[in-house]
Specification:
The chain contains seven helices and nine strands, in the order E-H-H-E-H-E-H-E-E-E-E-H-E-E-H-H. By secondary structure, the protein is α/β, with parallel strands linked by helices. Bound molecules: zinc ion.
Length: about 300
């Protein structure tokens, strides 16, 4: 079976306030290959297993811990000295990632660390529907190992005009279960943010955003549809996305009073790795059990298993 690509990025859009006070929100839809029929085929194997309780439990007990060697590539405009302190920082990134993936049974090990001299910036890779990203991956990926490319941002996050300010920052991106490449791209700014690193690895191993609705339709609060709509995960409650962040009380860590058209009140998990919400009083981020199971199953697919040792 072929696994088709889908790219999802983690894009931070800070409130872009114009003269009449509108807040713009980019829900960051899939930006490449958005044909829903193709993507449904992509996720089908995992969904069928998730549907079958006894099969899922059997596999859960049989799948063993997997070690994924990691190759870090620091993309730098000028020559850069790989010091012990840089290597130590990358090891810290992985130890935090390993903590996040404990429940999945994945262990990530820094195996290679390299510097690639190039002036390319993170934003350039995402232009023209990630056209340059595909070329970049083809030129610099290695076939047998998961690579994390770390790129600098361009200098400015904000565009200022006479009456508006618009700011955005891409934290990183990755294809979801794609055979197109074996990499995750992170910004140098966000590689030190354990939430964003775990989020991108979550995509790489098959997870969608908790607020996903474009690809499979909106999560409709109906339990019988939870495997086929939204993020296709049943134990993540419906999430309307950060456009409705005004309904969140970050003191009590809950969304209050926002309902769908049928009167169902949204209670998204704020501290889920695959959401876009801010930390709630530093409440620990986590994956749900079903998210962990989906990643575990993704680790068994040939396109991912071959990257483990
Ligand atoms: Zn994302």
């Amino acid at each position: 079976m072929k696994y088709f690509p889908l790219i999802l990025t983690l894009l931070f859009l800070f409130p872009a306030l114009n003269s009449i006070g509108q807040v713009h929100e980019d829900k960051n839809w899939c930006q490449l290959n958005c044909n829903p029929s193709i993507i449904k085929e992509n996720a089908q194997v995992i969904t069928e297993i998730m549907r079958d309780d006894s099969l899922r439990q059997l596999l859960d007990s049989r799948i063993e811990t997997k070690v994924f060697p990691i190759r870090f590539v620091l993309v730098k405009e000028q020559s850069f000295n790989l010091t012990d302190s840089v290597r130590h920082e990358l090891d810290t990134v992985l130890s935090q990632l390993n903590e996040a993936f404990k429940g999945v049974g994945f262990v990530f090990e820094r195996t290679r660390t390299e510097v690639l001299e190039s002036a390319i910036k993170l934003e350039e890779l995402s232009q023209n529907r990630f056209e340059l990203y595909d070329k970049f991956s083809a030129a610099h990926d290695q076939d047998d190992i998961l690579t994390v490319f770390i790129l600098d941002h361009k200098n400015d996050f904000c565009t200022v005009t006479d009456n508006s300010i618009s700011c955005s920052r891409i934290g990183g991106f990755s294809y979801v279960l794609s055979s197109l490449n074996n990499n995750i791209v992170m910004s140098e700014f966000d590689i030190k943010d354990p939430k964003i690193v775990a989020h991108e690895f979550g995509h790489f191993f098959g997870l969608y955003h908790t607020f996903e609705e474009r690809l499979f339709g909106k999560d409709n609060f109906n339990e019988s549809d939870c495997l086929t709509t939204g993020d296709r995960i049943c134990d993540t409650s419906p999430d309307p996305g950060t456009a409705f962040e005004l309904y969140i009380n970050y003191a009590t860590c809950e969304m209050i009073g926002f309902k769908d058209e049928n009167g169902n009140e949204y209670k998204p998990i704020l501290e889920n790795y695959m959401s876009y919400y801010k930390p709630c009083y530093l409440k620990k981020y986590s994956f749900t059990k079903d998210q962990e199971m989906v990643m575990k199953l993704a680790g068994e697919l040939p396109i991912r298993k071959r990257l483990s040792k």
